[in-house]
């Protein structure tokens, strides 16, 4: 395991990361379409962007990002050199907002009455979170204006422990944003999507909302956690406090997520929620007991070497998942453990009534 960790650190050290220069507005000439995004962050301002410092007050922005005609699903076409809207994701407009202006825009739902908020994971910069949300929005073709909550990640591989603390630092701010957005008069449904350590932050926010008696907020939430980096025992404790949500929480897991394997190693070889095995009857029982839906998406292609970014493909296959659920009789309110077979386009339960595994599924 130490060898694997060393290899990952070496790989990360060689990888090129986008600087805050990508946040500077450029021409939209040649771009195929524009995506409007909102951001809320408790990072400290630094130059043209935001750093890993922990700010005492939040900042809000509105971005327009041009999507190139050559865009491929799940990919972020980063600029290499001067940004060109014909081939790159390009910021074309950037506006600073105050809190009321942000809430007015963030609380304007799509035609189905829903709004959405994305919480990024460990080792993310502000610009990486922004452009990842742009990719998700471009592939999903959502109606409402997507919102990024960017907490003060160190944006370094070696910042794992600091990121854990930063997520807890951001909990109150995330609770405030969720509460204020959900209270906007036209909002009927609030999709809350978190990846990796962002899932841990979301669960802590839900726990706080429950303890504060904010049932009216929790009832609007549709919570989706992709590869959540949460100790499995901590996750169960969080679920015990939160209780079943009106719309069951959805958990996307993968057995071959190497990033979560490393996280498990760093945490004393303790199981992570994002690597739960849906073939284990204990997981099926726990899903029913806590009122959640666990879906194994190991069959979905991962673009990174660690198998941790499958969530980037979820936007493109989201409508497919919905139609499959409707076709195969898997209700959005149904709980349990399921397997998504990307090749066969089917969601199936790996369990018989007695908890035995169905061969071949």
Structure description:
The longest helix has 18 residues, at 311-328. This protein has a single domain, classed as Rossmann fold (3-Layer(aba) Sandwich), CATH 3.40.50. It has helices spanning 2-14, 99-106, 126-140, 160-169, 171-182, 197-211, 215-218, 232-242, 258-266, 281-290, 311-328, and strands at 33-46, 49-67, 90-97, 114-119, 147-150, 189-195, 221-226, 249-253, 292-296, 336-341, 346-348. It is of the alpha/beta class and 361 residues long. It is globular.
Q: Can I get a quick summary?
A:
This protein has 361 residues and is of the alpha/beta class. It has helices at residues 2-14, 99-106, 126-140, 160-169, 171-182, 197-211, 215-218, 232-242, 258-266, 281-290, 311-328, and strands at 33-46, 49-67, 90-97, 114-119, 147-150, 189-195, 221-226, 249-253, 292-296, 336-341, 346-348.
Strand order of the largest sheet: 3-2-1-5-4-6-7-8-9-10-11
Beta fraction: 15-25%
The biggest beta sheet reads: 11 strands, mixed
Main CATH class: Alpha Beta
Strands, total number: 11
Radius of gyration: 20 Å
Query: H/E series, N to C?
Result: HEEEHEHEHHEHHEHEHHEHEE
So how many helices?
Answer: 11
Q: Structurally, how many domains make up the residues?
A: 1
Named CATH architecture? 3-Layer(aba) Sandwich
Helix content: 25-40%
The N- to C-terminal Cα distance equals 30 Å
* pLDDT averaged residue by residue: 85
Which class best fits the helix and strand makeup?
A: alpha/beta
* CATH topology term: Rossmann fold
